[in-house]
From TrEMBL:
<dbReference type="InterPro" id="IPR050534">
    <property type="entry name" value="Coronavir_polyprotein_1ab"/>
</dbReference>
<keyword id="KW-0547">Nucleotide-binding</keyword>
<dbReference type="Pfam" id="PF14520">
    <property type="entry name" value="HHH_5"/>
</dbReference>
<dbReference type="InterPro" id="IPR006345">
    <property type="entry name" value="RecD2"/>
</dbReference>
<dbReference type="Pfam" id="PF13604">
    <property type="entry name" value="AAA_30"/>
</dbReference>
<dbReference type="InterPro" id="IPR055446">
    <property type="entry name" value="RecD2_N_OB"/>
</dbReference>
<dbReference type="InterPro" id="IPR029493">
    <property type="entry name" value="RecD2-like_HHH"/>
</dbReference>
<protein>
    <recommendedName>
        <fullName>ATP-dependent RecD2 DNA helicase</fullName>
        <ecNumber>5.6.2.3</ecNumber>
    </recommendedName>
</protein>
<dbReference type="Pfam" id="PF13538">
    <property type="entry name" value="UvrD_C_2"/>
</dbReference>
<dbReference type="InterPro" id="IPR003593">
    <property type="entry name" value="AAA+_ATPase"/>
</dbReference>
<dbReference type="Pfam" id="PF18335">
    <property type="entry name" value="SH3_13"/>
</dbReference>
<dbReference type="Pfam" id="PF14490">
    <property type="entry name" value="HHH_RecD2"/>
</dbReference>
<dbReference type="InterPro" id="IPR041451">
    <property type="entry name" value="RecD2_SH13"/>
</dbReference>
<keyword id="KW-0347">Helicase</keyword>
<comment type="similarity">
    <text>Belongs to the RecD family. RecD2 subfamily.</text>
</comment>
<keyword id="KW-0067">ATP-binding</keyword>
<feature type="binding site">
    <location>
        <begin position="362"/>
        <end position="366"/>
    </location>
    <ligand>
        <name>ATP</name>
    </ligand>
</feature>
Length: 786
């Protein structure tokens, strides 16, 4: 492998004794290496970290890189590149040939090979496989296997050299080889732009550079095709639109591919290329809107599904009078007097096939959901929930995330599940798979609707039986979904469904100024954030003072008897002095400091300690633990200690106990401080929210609104008041979507234009239409986040 890295001067050769940690996703390894030769001061056993596509224990490698300081374990070697060292001694070659790399070759055979061919056996075999015929007792198939394995390894080396020359780091190289295997060199040569769509994290600019190196001209049409696809995909995924206007595509593609001096593609050519790609079924163009097929399909068909549900003849005969009576009974049961809008929300939920309830915090959404369930029981004479067989209970409560569904289950008292679980969207479901579930329910209530994106919405709707009533509940002013679309807002604004907006704040009466603040933010009322209240305060601080300030606040809260479960710090970015990573380190020191009694395990840059507050980062549907769920590390077992065979971390998620092996630890992070996105759907007694100018890029009104509404008892905002006001004046990018229009079209009898659209895309199969792309630059689809 070429050693052209800038770290050439530092290297280390040695046998890998143990792979201590391996992330399957990123190929990040932590290795224990027995140093054989080096120009560093390392001797004996040394920790080497880096991104390697493949490293095996008991084999020898040459690592080049640099010496780094780990916060806990001191100096270690961070490799930037590595090379499999062919063994140079007889014993080395024998060990290698009898290792797992060569299946079915035992030590005896390996010894015979070396006895016959000498220390250079590997080179001799690579040159001429017939050399192996001289070795006694080797079958033809074994000769072939040994020869091909040696060649294979040489080939991987060559690919690594090329990727390294191009400028890919070890991590990316490992991912590329994992995806293309031995086709890697051919792809780099012939269609480098495939990398943009195939390999998460490879941007168009990189592929463009490779293309130039491979001799592809800058004005070649395939460059244009790749550029267009990249723009449609990238902008949709990063900004959440479901389509781009053709003029925006032209403008952005022009910016991407042309330079002020050299126009490789005219606007006209770009437009023509868009049509070509459309003909190839890779995008859909309707009324000058350019869509990823899956988003067009989901929006378009979702409107059809809503129409199907709304127009299915009512099978029950509930009258307004029946509902009125039920509401009166509820009022006396719950000792409550519903306001007019609340009553009408209950009426719509029971009388309409599909209805919507939206409202800010404390306006009674949960109260109304409970009311609807009770009234439904009353009107349909349902048995007690426990008297139904599992799955036969006709009311289903669902929410888009694990946490939201847990909360909903608790507040409603009848249990709830995620939407994914209800429709069977499992871990093994391919991302382009349309789900067909056998769903049976008479009433489905979906909470936290603002978090539902276009894909999930359609996958859900297509599985809802026609007789089922649907009630969508949410807060339309919260952050929109992670994935594309503004489903909840579009449903509300389409005017085709009955919407009740709850606007009377009840919790405020209990002395909460937090909820009032949230509503003032929503309504755009002038606010003085520095005003002091019993339950909220603002503490001015510069960005470099934030960490210390939070340290102080938390220390004081702990003295008052609050613990880590009560206190949640919310920040919008990860890096920097006031970022999530730094704040987590500080908070861990206060809330769960180092202690001889507590075991610890280091994973990457994180020290996990018994008693730590942690958050799960991807869905584990089979365990009922989801991205964003919070837990506490109850125990850590270290390898060889008390007979443990592996390092293990046990986390308690409110009674669900999960064991993580080292390789799973990438799924876990500290949760003393989390992002506001991750906190959506949860509430905490104390919320501390730093708001500083260095967050500017991320600070917009609905992020602040969502953050503030997480606080139940006490809210402390610290930082720069101007940054706070500034955030309130920023609405974020408005997402372009067409669900609203499709709904209106569908519900107006003369849906000619829309049907016309469908006839134009009729030839596209569902399979072509439904391809959910991974998020650009992220090794996950949006579904890993739900
Ligand atoms: N009509 C009413 N009269 C008196 N109190 C009410 C009424 N409606 C709701 N409340 C009370 O207001 C409080 C907030 O209601 P609820 O929790 O249902 O609101 P929410 O919209 O679900 O809030 P959040 O979104 O913050 O969870 C509760 O204590 C509830 O009992």
């Amino acid at each position: 492998m070429s050693q052209s890295s800038i770290y050439d001067d530092l290297y280390l050769t040695g046998e890998v004794e143990r792979v201590i940690f391996l992330s399957e996703k990123t190929r990040f390894h932590v290795l224990k290496v027995l140093v054989d030769e080096t120009n560093t001061k390392f001797t004996g056993e040394t920790i080497v970290t880096g991104y390697f596509h493949d490293v095996s224990e008991s084999e020898t490698y040459r690592f080049t890189g640099k010496v780094t300081e780990h916060q806990r374990y001191g100096e270690q070697f961070s490799a930037v590149s590595f090379k499999h060292e062919m063994p140079k001694t007889n014993t080395g070659v024998i060990n290698y040939l009898s290792s797992d790399v060569f299946h079915g070759i035992g030590r005896k055979t390996a010894e015979r090979i070396v006895d016959t061919l000498g220390t250079n056996a590997l080179e001799i075999i690579a040159d001429n496989k017939n050399a192996l015929k001289e070795v006694e007792g080797l079958s033809k198939s074994k000769i072939e296997m040994i020869y091909h394995t040696i060649l294979e390894n040489q080939k991987t080396e060559r690919i690594m050299i090329r990727l390294n020359d191009i400028g890919f780091g070890a991590s990316m190289s490992a991912r590329i080889i994992k995806y293309y295997g031995e086709d890697t060199l051919r792809i780099l040569e012939e269609s480098p732009y495939s990398l943009v769509t195939d390999i998460d994290g490879v941007g168009f600019k990189t592929a463009d550079k490779i293309a130039v190196q491979s001799g592809i001209e800058l004005n070649e049409i395939r460059r244009l095709y790749a550029g267009i696809l990249y723009i449609v995909d990238d902008v949709t995924m990063s900004e959440g639109h479901t389509f781009l206007h053709i003029n925006d595509v032209i403008m952005k593609v022009d910016e991407l591919l042309n330079t002020p001096q050299l126009v490789y593609f005219s606007d006209e050519q770009i437009k023509e290329a868009v049509s070509d790609i459309e003909a190839e079924e890779k995008i859909v163009v309707v009324d000058n809107h350019v869509y990823l097929p899956t988003l067009f399909y989901s929006e378009y068909k979702a409107a059809d599904e809503i129409f199907r549900l709304v127009n299915h003849p009512e099978e029950d005969d509930i009258t307004d009078e029946n509902v009125d009576t039920a509401v009166e009974e509820l009022e006396s049961l719950f000792k409550i007097e519903y306001n007019t809008r609340q009553k009408s929300a209950i009426h719509h939920a029971l009388n309409e096939k599909v209805s919507i309830i939206t409202g800010g915090p404390g306006t009674g959404k949960t109260t109304i959901v409970k009311g609807i369930i009770n009234a439904y029981h009353e009107l349909f004479d349902l048995k007690d929930m426990d008297d139904y067989e599992e799955d036969e209970y006709p009311i289903k409560l669902i929410a888009p995330t694990g946490r939201a569904s847990k909360r909903l289950g608790e507040t409603s008292g009848i249990g709830a599940s995620t939407i994914h679980r209800l429709i069977g969207w499992g871990q093994d479901t391919e991302k382009d798979e349309l789900i067909d579930a056998e769903l049976d329910a008479d009433l489905i209530i979906i909470d936290e609707m603002s978090m539902v994106d276009t894909w999930l919405f359609y996958q859900f709707l297509r599985n809802v039986p026609s007789h089922t009533k649907l009630v969508f509940v949410g807060d339309k002013d919260q952050l929109p979904s992670v994935g594309p679309g503004t489903v909840f807002k579009d449903l509300i604004e389409s005017d085709v469904l009955k919407v009740t907006e709850l606007d009377t704040i009840y919790r405020q009466g209990e002395g909460s100024s937090i909820i009032r603040l949230a509503h003032e933010i929503k309504e755009g009322t002038q606010i003085d954030i520095t005003e002091k209240h019993r339950d909220r305060s603002f503490i001015p601080a510069r960005v470099d003072q934030i960490a210390e300030l939070i340290d102080n606040i938390v220390q004081r809260a702990v003295k008052k008897g609050y613990d880590m479960r009560d206190i949640q710090v919310l920040a919008p970015i990860y890096r920097g002095n006031a970022g999530i990573i730094k704040l987590n380190q500080i908070l861990q020191n206060i809330l769960n400091p180092e202690n001889d009694e507590k075991n610890e395990l280091v994973s990457g840059e994180t020290i996990f300690r018994e008693g730590d507050k942690v958050i799960q980062l991807v869905n584990r549907r089979e365990d009922n633990v989801f991205n964003g769920d919070g837990g506490i590390i109850e125990s850590i077992f270290l390898k060889d200690e008390n007979g443990a065979e592996k390092d293990m971390v046990n986390v308690d998620y409110d009674g669900i106990h999960i064991t993580y092996e080292r390789k799973d630890l990438m799924e876990l992070s500290h949760a003393y401080c989390t992002s506001i996105h991750k906190a959506q759907g949860s509430e905490y007694p104390i919320v501390i929210m730093p708001v500083v100018n260095s967050y500017r890029r991320m600070l917009i009104k609905n992020i602040v609104y969502t953050g503030i509404t997480r606080a139940k008892e006490s809210l402390i905002i610290c930082g720069d008041q101007n940054a706070f006001y500034d955030a309130l004046s920023r609405e974020g990018i408005k997402r372009d979507t067409t669900l609203k229009q499709f709904l209106r079209d569908k519900f107006q009898v003369e849906r000619e234009s829309a049907d016309d659209i469908l006839s134009r895309i009729e030839h596209l199969t569902e399979a072509v239409m439904f391809k959910i792309p991974a998020m650009i630059g992220v090794d996950k689809t949006p579904y890993d986040f739900n």
